Amino acid sequence: MKTKLIVSCPYCKENVEWSGNKWRPFCSERCKMIDLGKWASEDYKVSEKSMDESYATGFSIVKDDI
Ligand SMILES: [Zn+2]
Question: Rounded to 5 degrees, what are φ and ψ at 33?
Answer without folding.
Answer: -65, -40
